[in-house]
Design goal:
This protein is an alpha/beta fold and 364 residues long. The chain is 25% helix and 24% strand. The strands form 2 sheets. It has a 9-stranded mixed β-sheet. Bound molecules: NADP nicotinamide-adenine-dinucleotide phosphate. NADP nicotinamide-adenine-dinucleotide phosphate binds next to strand 6, strand 7, helix 8, strand 8 and helix 10.
């Protein structure tokens, strides 16, 4: 790689690093960072997108300018927008700044932009270079891209299990399989998500809190998917003072007279079947880019079968639960041949005290 290319890569990596500062806050918007150099290649400004309704990365960089940007260049990890949203279009700002070159890592998958921003920049005589650090940018915004393309939320399934692959005892007790450090890591991990999903049985058995313990404000949305509406009258999830809760129920099977038992602060959404895809679509429509499925084996299996899961995170504890009737992480997928089984890729593992955290992607 020539010195020139090394320095272009360096500035794009800087833009990506800035973008990652909005990792837990930018949703439903993408994670974007921007760097501006003057005509001599000196850094004169930078910015990132923090939150919807707040300035986009490019706008923030322009408002932080230390010097005139005329004849300079910009590095941005996502195509600048060309539509009026909560804030004005960024291409107009780039064009009026007099910038001569722009390095864009990837196109914006949002149909309102999707190549149109680049066309306008080119039409205005700006040199556009597309594709620098493409792999890193796709990775950083994979959930935003997935939601825009599929109209479903990017799903991560998380479970904790013993070394013999059990997620609970046969009586349903599962507190606690993993160590304190792993559980605290899960609280931090939840900050990356817009919503956390469980099924009605996990609510009944575990009465979880499903919060970040104050590490994110607002807390992720807590979602309960139920076919029966047979939910407990007392539950930690009925306290909406720190986090919102939604109950999504299948009206084809649920006993709707149970709705009166759910407190008014909880939002109720009715769907027509028990297909987990419906949850993924509803949450995507509400702007959730990335959702965490913390359900037990039955809902987990249905979610995997309906392509709601793109990645998995497994905590494995050095414990043996044993028992033919203790729960496995999944129900039967009815596979008959080894080639039908689910393949995982990009596997990664780390130690959390004595536990192992295993992360992987599902090849859909
Ligand atoms: N170790 C771990 O990481 C972990 C994590 C979560 C849970 N668990 C354990 O897992 C057990 C619960 O397992 P579970 O599989 O019953 O979990 P679940 O998370 O409650 O999922 C099953 C429930 O989801 C609802 N549901 C809605 N649509 C569904 C569909 N298409 N397919 C299946 N269920 C659907 C039903 O609720 P309704 O019955 O209300 O209709 C069903 O009973 C508990 O003992 C809990 O402690 C362990």
């Amino acid at each position: 790689m020539s010195n020139k290319n090394v320095s272009h890569t360096k500035w794009m990596k800087r833009a990506i690093l800035l973008a990652s500062l909005g990792k837990n806050t930018s949703s439903p918007n993408p994670r974007v960072g921007a760097v501006i150099l003057d005509k001599n290649g000196n850094l004169i400004s930078e910015g990132f997108h923090y939150k919807a309704g707040m300035p986009h990365a490019e706008a923030m960089a322009f408002s932080n300018l230390k010097k005139d940007a005329k004849g300079g260049s910009m590095y941005v990890n996502l195509e600048p927008c060309c539509h009026q949203g909560k804030t004005p279009p960024c291409v107009d700002k780039v064009i009026s700044s007099g910038i001569r070159k722009i390095y864009i890592s990837i196109e914006d998958p949002d149909m309102r932009v999707s190549g149109k921003g680049i066309k306008l920049l080119k039409k205005a005589g700006i040199q556009v270079h597309l594709g620098l650090c493409k792999h890193e940018s796709l990775e950083l915004n994979k959930a935003f891209i997935h939601r825009n393309i599929t109209k479903k939320a990017f799903g991560v399934l998380k479970w904790a299990m013993s070394i013999d692959g059990r997620v609970s005892l046969k009586n349903g007790k599962s507190k606690w399989i993993t160590n304190k450090k792993s559980r605290s890591l899960v609280h931090s991990l939840r900050t990356e998500f817009d919503a956390i999903i469980i099924g009605g049985n996990t609510l009944r058995k575990d009465n979880p809190l499903l919060t970040t313990r104050g590490k994110k404000n607002p807390e992720p949305l807590r979602v309960i998917f139920t076919k029966s509406l047979d939910l407990p009258e007392k539950s930690n999830l009925w306290d909406c003072s720190n986090a919102k809760t939604i109950v999504i129920y299948d009206s084809s099977t649920a006993n709707e007279s149970n709705l009166t038992k759910i407190p008014k602060c909880v939002e109720i959404v009715k769907v027509s079947s028990d297909n987990p895809e419906l949850i993924s679509t509803i949450l995507a429509k509400r702007g959730c880019n990335k959702v965490l499925w913390e359900c037990g084996p039955r809902l987990a299996t249905a979610a995997v079968k309906s392509n709601c899961i793109q990645e998995i995170i497994t905590f494995i504890a050095p414990k043996i639960l044993g028992g033919e009737n203790s729960m496995n992480p999944f129900d039967d997928f009815d596979f008959e041949e080894m080639h039908e089984t689910i393949n995982l890729s990009q596997t990664n593992f780390s130690f959390v005290g004595n536990d192992i955290c295993f992360e992987s992607s599902i090849k859909n």
